[in-house]
Design brief:
Blueprint (H helix, E strand, L loop, with lengths): L3 E4 L5 E4 L3 E5 L17 E9 L4 E7 L3 E8 L1 E6 L4 E5 L2 E6 L4 E7 L6 E8 L9 E6 L9 E6 L7 E2 L5 E7 L4 E5 L5 E9 L2 E3 L2 E3 L4 E4 L4 E6 L3 E9 L3
Parallel strand pairs: 13-14
Antiparallel strand pairs: 1-20, 2-3, 3-4, 4-11, 5-10, 6-9, 6-11, 7-8, 7-10, 9-12, 13-15, 15-22, 16-21, 17-20, 17-22, 18-19, 18-21
């Protein structure tokens, strides 16, 4: 059995609601593909565009780790535990929904759209006290490097979640290459190409393609053009 899968960008679920255009890597809402329910503990990878002044009204979540990464524009966040904040391109936001949390996300801009990734990861600890955090990433830390933006450890770099997972972002110049060694046995890695052309373990990928691989110790990454991508290392089973 092959330990690699590729999701080409154009094969993702496509939901266009006018105010929201969302591309779903994994089954979500009205998009269902039995071959694409999740990748290990990675449950949702939505690539969202929200029109000016529009957004998601208050809605509930529970027992899920929810990560938002704005790629363009600004989102206004409000939640039921008292947080009101703006997350901008270059920030990362995390919520541990735990016993239950309500939140809303709106495009703060009145004249331009906002683009962001919405990612859900199954937690390894249920019914925790809901929590919220966000940080601003340093763009230079991902230039021809893998910048850690999420981990299981509150004292480590980036935000943290209740799961044995690590996320990294890279902005590679053309022809730059680097290996990534997985941090935990039993984990797999899902790569999502935000922009450019990349080869991972011999597989050529382009903008908005995804690649998942498991039962490996490391992956080899080479940029075939200037490229921007996200690596998500997650457990493959509970």
């Amino acid at each position: 059995m092959s330990n690699i899968l590729v999701h080409k960008g154009e094969t993702r679920g496509d939901a266009n609601h006018g105010w929201l255009h969302s591309r779903h890597t994994f089954s979500f809402a009205d998009y269902y593909d039995p071959e694409r329910i999740h990748f290990g503990m990675l449950r949702v990878l939505n690539d969202d565009i929200v029109q000016a002044g529009r957004g998601f009204d208050m809605h509930p979540h529970e027992n899920m780790e929810i990560i938002s990464i704005p790629l363009e524009g600004s989102l206004e966040h409000k939640d039921s535990i008292g947080n009101v904040s703006i997350i901008n391109s270059g920030d990362i936001q995390v919520m541990s929904a735990g016993t239950g949390i309500y939140h809303s996300e709106f495009n703060k801009n009145k004249d331009k759209q906002v683009k962001f990734l919405q990612i859900w990861v199954f937690p390894n600890k249920k019914d925790v006290l809901p929590r919220y955090d966000q940080i601003t990433l340093q763009k230079d830390d991902s230039h021809n490097k893998l910048q850690q933006i999420l981990s299981p450890n509150p004292d480590d770099k980036g935000v943290w979640i209740y799961q044995n997972a690590w996320f990294h972002m890279g902005r590679f110049d053309k022809e730059f290459s680097l290996d990534y060694r997985l941090k935990a046995k039993g984990n797999g890695i899902y790569a999502f190409i935000l922009n450019g052309d990349v080869t991972i373990n011999g597989q050529q990928l382009s903008t908005r393609d995804g690649l998942g691989t498991w039962d490996i110790d490391k992956i080899s990454i080479k940029a075939n053009s200037n490229a921007y991508f996200l690596l998500m290392e997650v457990p493959m089973s509970t």
